[in-house]
Amino acid sequence: MSEAETQPAEISEPMDTGDKEEFFHPETGEKISKNAFKKLQKAPKKEKKEKPAPVPAGEKKDKKEKAGKVAEEICTDATPKGQFKRIEDAFPAAYQPRYVEAAWNSWWEESKFYQPDVAKGQEVGEDGRFVMVIPPPNVTGSLHLGHALTNAIQDTLTRWHRMNGKVTLWVPGVDHAGIATQSVVEKQLKKLEGKSRHDLGREEFVKKVWEWKETYGNRICNQIRSLGASVDWSREAFTMDANLSTAVTEAFCRFFEDGLLYRDTRLVNWSCSLKSAISDIEVDHIDLEGRTFLAVPNHKLRATYEFGMITSFAYKVAPECARTEGEEVVVATTRLETMLGDSAVAVHPEDPRYTHLHGKFLVHPFLDRRIPIVTDGELVDMSFGTGAVKVTPAHDPNDYLCGKRNNLEFMTVLTDDGRIAANGGQFAGMMRYDARIEMEKALDGLGLLRGKEVNKMRLGVCSRSGDIIEPMLTPQWYVNCTTMAKRAADSVRNGELKIVPAIHEQTWFNWLDNSRDWCVSRQLWWGHRIPAYFARLPGEDTVNKDQTDPANGNRWFVARSREAALTKAAQALGVSESDITLSQDEDVLDTWFSSGLFPFSVFAWPNNTEDLKAFFPTTLLETGVDILFFWVARMVMMSLHLTDLLPFKTVYLHAMVRDKNGRKMSKSTGNVIDPMEVIHGCLLSDLLKKIDEGNLPEKEVVKAKAAQTLDFPDGIPECGADALRFGLLAYTVQGRDVNLDIKRVVGYRQFCNKIWNAFKFTLTYIKGFEPFAGMDQYILQSALAQPREKWIISRLNATIGEVDTAIATYLFGNATSALHSFFLYDVCDVYLEVCKPVFNDQSEGNAEQVRITQATLYLVLETFLRLAHPFMPFLTEELWQRLPLRQLVNSSKSIMIAAYPAMVENWTDATAEKNVGLVQNAIHGARSLRADYKIANHIKGDFYFRTE
């Protein structure tokens, strides 16, 4: 058997639809032969050749174009905003993402494809609709690759459900981001006007924040648009909008009225720089292996302070309690300054070394007070160190519990801004780490310093200010989460709420089964001000009626308005309203409080609006696993309590996006890649400039620059949103972090180019062809249909099934793999090649065969574009709209509202797949032999096959 006889048609070389062997007319974009192209090259030029633009400093010059190639003409789009794209103006010879992605978004929005029918949403019920709210990014933020992955997943799901005929709504929004936004505006105010927020006062400062929000706050929304997110922008929400603020006030009041919200004085994470409590998620941690010097905000300029050491010092036993003269107890601490707040030294009750000192006293070296020795088996490990532990209940979580158990005094020795308080004796007024240095000197001078040792430790650092976190005892508002947490945990246990991947269920249970009360107050000016009012009577002021004193707790009144609070206060205190002076709490609510209401506050809850009836509960919550506790759990708890409904039925948690080496992407390591840098491309010099403009230490700058130069020696090429989306989705394997190599995204940009060129190739062979309804059955039932047609349609059917199942089960990596494999290896490498001999046969008797092949090409390409649309919205819309006479088979105005492909029973042909598979194996074997024996492709040869 000869080589030719083993193939369904002559395949001398696999078609390369990249741009290596295909040639197009530089003006018309039509495919032309190589010889014709060469003639064009030799023809005299009409215009003077322009000199190439200078290469930016630090950038490599592009390699010289290969012979036979011309510089690609860059196409631009001139479509007026909101109008259908003027695709007739240009048809680039090769894929140009910037051109392809132009105009479609504004047309989609103007056409209201993203907006659902509210009445229909109510009519079809939960099973007939798909509703999501976006995890609202911070208004101060800029997109990072985690956002890009979130949007790629959510938009793929939204477009898939929309094409499957569901009433679809994806609600966008941004979070006011209390701490983050206030920090940004404060820094700007200091830089531009040399003022602090206190110089302006609360009202003027909040005005400044709103001005900043209006100027800069839409940046991240515009970036989301660049990704092609099909959110309903008419419903864009901001957590400080009036209707969302009403929901926040209502929720706070209901929690209070239900006995779940209360005020108490407890330990919190305190940022002295921000002068506020912060949540656990806003605390970063740095691990110190030993002695380390760090700069601390609000301390001496250019000074660094010592950490990673443990200091031992002695407390002298009170003379009347001492067994011997000069008897002492040695304790050790990594936070020497807190010894000013020591209210006891604890020992283990069974430690024989201290039995004689139980109930005795020690003398404080700097303050006029005595310190009791208490026994505490929970706090003290008698085998560690000296077996004696200093106890500072107001500044340490473990000491706080010890203080509660032993009824100790709680002494706060730090001010809000981190200075030693007035009760700190000779150290009062010093910044805490300056005081640490002075205390060490003073202890040494008194002969009480017993040494210092290296000590591994973990420091909590405020993610917003970089300040070292202090545990501080302050009055705050708390929500009792016990019953709500149990209900949220049970919703997963009984199957009402599904978490995907299921491996995260145990984490859910661990947190909710051991939940603590939630501190919801923050000492900020930007945010939802707490609707609680402190009442004073005539003659009372902030001194004799202090609102921070727990004894005055009965003077706090929670209400939906100042007027309602005044009425409540008058009734409770038995006086007339005119005798009462109300002061609203200065604090604002934790940002997560308003975010926790987002799935229903965006629909104007507590009002029973048409939107609330139509779109709540939502269908799915998709977000990162890192905020499972802070946001997801709180949404579930708050929704169950306030609406008696789950806010969504499924939670899909995507993994963290890391760099290709598995490192977390963070500003501190200089490896953050902005999605816009991938979409539009970025010079190496710009990547390095971004590192210079950051806040990295000099050594880290050098390392970060070296890494970026190694990874992107030529910068990042323009990839486009479709390639970025497809690349991110290709990485998603449930349960694994995404170690993203940008070069793989560049590879998917080439895949987009492959699709583009295959489309142009197809157009050259379907000129004059009129598509018609029922093409698939015409092809399959024709006596002239060849195995190649039946095979490619069968492969298309299998791919439809794979992709549909993968999306339904959140296996996006499987879906992208199926799409990529089908188009690259089945369509381009095989089917387009075997079509060529058919089209090259111009004989009259071949006309019907040509029509069948044209119909198959049209069917496969049109179906594939719809199949790939949720993943690559721009490219698929561009090409789908360019399909000749497409309205004859699909009258949808846009591909995004066209029907999603479904499997057709008689498309599957196992015999055709098996037979073509055998041919493919034979071809592969023949090519392998050619390669093994180095036989050039132009040399014809005979190959012999033995069959069993």
Structural class: alpha+beta
Rounded to the nearest angstrom, the radius of gyration is: 35 Å
CATH class identity of the domain at 112-250 and 592-654 = Alpha Beta
Tell me the CATH topology of the domain at 112-250 and 592-654. Rossmann fold
CATH superfamily of the domain at 112-250 and 592-654: HUPs
Q: Helix count, per DSSP?
A: 30
The unreliable regions are: 1-21, 24-31, 44-68
Shape: elongated
> How would you sum up the major sheet?
7 strands, mixed
Average pLDDT rating: 89
- Percent of residues in beta strands: 5-15%
Number of strands: 31
Overall helicity: 25-40%
Span from first to last CA? 15 Å
Subcellular location: Cytoplasm; Mitochondrion
Region (Disordered): 1-69
Biased composition (Basic and acidic residues): 17-33, 47-69
Catalytic activity: tRNA(Val) + L-valine + ATP = L-valyl-tRNA(Val) + AMP + diphosphate
Walk me through the structure.
Helix 13 (482-493) packs antiparallel against helix 14 (505-512), helix 23 (720-731) crosses helix 24 (742-765) and helix 23 (720-731) crosses helix 27. The strands form eleven sheets. Strands 12, 13, 14, 15, 16, 17 and 18 form a seven-stranded mixed beta sheet that branches. A four-stranded antiparallel beta sheet has the order 8-7-20-22. The chain has a three-stranded parallel beta sheet with strand order 21-29-28, covered by helices on one side. It has 948 residues and is of the alpha+beta class. It is elongated and about 120 Å long. Belongs to the class-I aminoacyl-tRNA synthetase family. It is found in: Cytoplasm; Mitochondrion. This is Valine--tRNA ligase, mitochondrial. Keywords: Aminoacyl-tRNA synthetase, ATP-binding, Cytoplasm, Ligase, Nucleotide-binding, Protein biosynthesis.
